[in-house]
Request: fold
Amino acid sequence: MAINTHPTLPEFDYFRPETLIEASDFLVHHATDARPFLGGTDVFVRMRDGLLSPKFLVDVKSLPGMNDLRFDPLSGLIIGAAVNMNRVIASSEVQQHYPLLADACRSVASYQLRTRATIIGNICNASPAGDTLGASLAFEGVLHIHGSDGVRRESLTDFFLGPGKTKLKTGDVAFALHLPSPPPGSIGIYLKLGRNKLSDLSIVGVTAFGYPEPAALSGYRFRLILASVAPVPFVAKEAEAYLSNTPITSDSIYAAACLAAEACTPIDDVRGSVRYRKQMVKNLAARALSEIWEKLKK
Amino acid sequence: MAFHKINVIVNGKDEQVMVSSNMTLMRMLRECLALTGTKNGCSAGECGSCTVLINGEPVNSCMVLAAECDGAEIVTVEGLAGDKQLDPIQETIIEAGGVQCGFCTPGILISSRALLNRNPNPSEDEIREALVGNLCRCTGYLRIIESVKAAARR
Amino acid sequence: MAESDPINAPSPVGENKPRIDGREKVTGAAIFADDLQFGNALLYARIKRSPHPHALIKRLDISKARALPGVKAVVTGEDFTGYIGLYLQDRYIFCRDRVRYVGDPVAGVAAISDEIAYQALELIDVEYEVLEPVLDPEFGASSQALLLHPDLGKYVVANFIFPKEGTNVSNHFKIRRGDVDGAWDKCAAVIERKYRIPHIQHVPIEPHVAIAKMDEAGEITLWASSQSPFAQRNLIAQAIGVLPGKLRVIAPLVGGGFGGKAGVSMEALAVAIATKVKGRPVKLLLTREEEFYTAFVRQGLVAYFKMGCDEKGHLMAMENKFYWDGGAYTEYGVNITRAAGYSSSGPYEVPNVKTDSYCVYTNHPVGGPMRGFGMPEMHAGLEQCIDELAQQIGMDAVEFRKINCLKTGSTLVTGSKMHPTGLLQCIEKTAEAIGWDKKTPPSAPNKRRGKGLALMWKAPAMPPNAGSSAWVELVEDGTLNVGIGGQDIGQGVFTVAAQMAAAALGVPYESVRIATPVDTRYSPYEWQTVASRLTWSMGNAVVNAARDARQQILTTVAEAWEESLEDLDIVDGVVISYKSEKEIPLKNLVIYGLPKPDGQGWRGGPVVGRGNFMPTYITGLDKETGQGEQAVVHYTTGAQAVELEVDLDTGRIEILRGVSTYDVGKAINPEFVKAQMDGGFVQGMSSALFENLQLSNGVVQNPSFVDYRIATTTDAPKDLQSFIVEVPQDDGPWGARGIGEHSMVPTIPAIANAIYNAIGIRFEGPPFTAEKVYLAMLDAGMIK
Reply:
């Protein structure tokens, strides 16, 4: 109960490994007593609330490659795990090639918090409200992870298992996110509804992303991913499929939005009710899809 | 619990501090260096009254471990003026009536200075967005926003 | 506009002087209570709190906590038997047999670190017998509810508060004026409505903090972020069984109060614990979560309004029932019930009024004074009913208000007469500035635009003998030290006091220092920094003290120059004679006096001026009818209007413009007055759109900034205009009266009236969240 929140952080030991191997070994050796952290914006809050009590916090921010942010037109974008969201927003390459990701980052909290917050931290924290998860999924992100068995890649597609639960195992350190080059002509938008105009967690978040796809019946492929309406970032598969197979008009956009609203599974909580969230999915998905359609069809 | 000896530059001065692992930067500034200008409003990264600059970028110091700051340059409200009498934003915020109880003021000043450093002529919307993480309960914000515009002109 | 006729005041009154505490606040030098340094003697306190809204304490074992190394004291209700309270003593410092809200203090620990104190709490065993909680004030007032305070009849209570023994009603205030039952038939239109106003909170950015230390002689010092150092001295001393003189309260700058740091709340805990750890200071700093759970809240209200007017729009009758959700202890809240009762007509002349205002105990957090003191909660519904009544008889809402609003000499709901007031001007100025008669189209097809207006009135709610005092001491260099007991909580009273002292004595503003921090050992008595009373009451005391000093100076000089007092003046720190044109600067004379001629001695001496002010004319109100000759000292009146848009896709409200006009009598510092109007508007807007302390079975569901949303920079409107009207207050300094609270009183109904104007929907109460608005539009068939 938050009435018993620690006045400050509880006791723990701070450890900064020099290499990924050292990091993974330490985490395996101490198992549930140790936890890696990047910006700490989620971990510290949960520790104060008594939800997490690791004996060791492992600072992985200065490991090799963690601070890289580089783009290559063929292979795409590599975002090191420690790259903070402000850096991502300010990057001209991100703005040019992945503007949806910059927009999603901009909607997070505040400038001060974004100096610490990272996309990989957002992903590993796996809150269904995570603002950058939709964009990362839309861009078909792949997480690069170093674990006790060495390096592996995990596509984000099946990465999220539940609120706060991912495919990460003990010893894992996610060190980079790879976003392949986006399809040519792609347009994306992130619409976030909070209680305040800005800075809130999302009541509902809508990531819409579309691009010309000759193989699709409609000539386009859309991605529609919703935040805060399911245990994990919700991919509105029926809506996506519908838009691939149906000529795109304002009516079919509305129908797709209704499909998404129908399929998602929000809960009643202190931020919003099921009824309102479903209505907002419908309205905001329709708005998001309309806005990107206006740009796509040109 | 482990202790760490860290070297930081705070407001232009070299400091060496012994900190416990769980000490936040905010507490280090307030308790170890007697720099109480940085305020503790929530200890959860929400109110912004603990905002300081780390290597030129604003952060909620309650959400940063002191141990992470080895080798960093920190600027707090006490160091905002640098060699000058007062930073322009410190002058304009008084003139515009953007200070009432003063508790949010240090965080507001740091965030504003950081904004003007990266964007010397911000629009009203850019100012509002840059300060959204600094909560104020007294002023209603408008006079704070005016003071940032005035500081940009100075 | 003949009525606004401000009194001419000498400089610097009426000028926009910069804050006297501005520089320290922008450089980080300003000291707030948590910034005070106590060295390694400091102990840290933490409080064991009830997890239940209502329970009996069956067993309490502190032995393991006491034994934890580093723990210096563990205290419980067994150690402190005294009751505490401002208007009604209904609260123990630590619970003794029963807990009445989630967060009620059961034990306190002092240890050498916060972490050890925290661990000690875990080692305290408490066994509770859970009782059925009372969660609603109407239910609480009924005979089915358990009694939360079975000893209510035995509590010490102020003689203007009327608790009902054997019930949960700790105050029942009545208005019986005229013949309400007979009036309804004469009405052309009658409106009956119910409103439910939720609990909200002050949310100062600085949490509550108190440090207390008892020395070897038993003298106690309390340092606290406090609006009420003298009230805290008096009430805490009484509760722990010592004379008030033994408790010294030192109050550094306050990082926001809004009423939450008035009276006594957590400060008593720190003092109590300190009495068990002689010689060491004990600090209690509330976490932000504890602020939300355990600090004062604004009372909730269930309000029933019935009002009627004739076909010409004259208000004929009002019948009101207010059930105040006072929370676990209503030692302060009982007066909110009363204040709402004697204000229950709103700022209107109504010949027939029947009001029953009930303060009800519930197992909710403790209701306390919050900016507006019952007025925002009451006006929220009342000003909407006024709009509806006007609509029913087909009259414009502004016209209706102009007909009915109070004017000089109007008869009030208490039977008293209204003093000179500029309320009508406030209405006209506000309506004009918002463009009341102009209809602007919405900015997009998915928006609806509307305008709304609301009035307010409020008197300082205080005991009839709440006093202020001040001293003015001169320094060798001719500058002034001014001693006051009021606190600057951001409203700027230190600056304004300096302006008034400077004007009354005849020195420049820059020559004045305010003796801070307020320290009950050295500072003169001030009842409390509440009720928007300081500029008026403390201002009078400061002016009296400055004039007393001035009189002493001029008497000495008159003697020395053999001139008469009437020909002398002090201007810019120099005593001058209009007759002989002689001059002498204040410096030196104000300490050493003036030499007599021919080495015959000296005259004069150190100048210390003293002044006080206490209203002597409050007559009280009849217990059955609420009628009396002069119930309150005065009223500040005003009007607010908003223009807003509703987003049909999300339900979100955007406030485009706000206009406020208040009659403040005399603006000592006009920019500061406007700053209060701006800040109050935004806080009022925040309470209208976002704020709700969500309680479920007595447990706060949103005890953090994450889920208790307040207005941020992006929510403040782009355009706020604030106007000052000055119809002088007969006994205020240069005509001044207060503004601090009033600016947030009419905002909820102004916004509600604007929402109705935009989409034709009203709500049972705020906050008008996007969800509430959207679902209402959906249910009304306005959108699909």
Chain B has a mean pLDDT of 97.
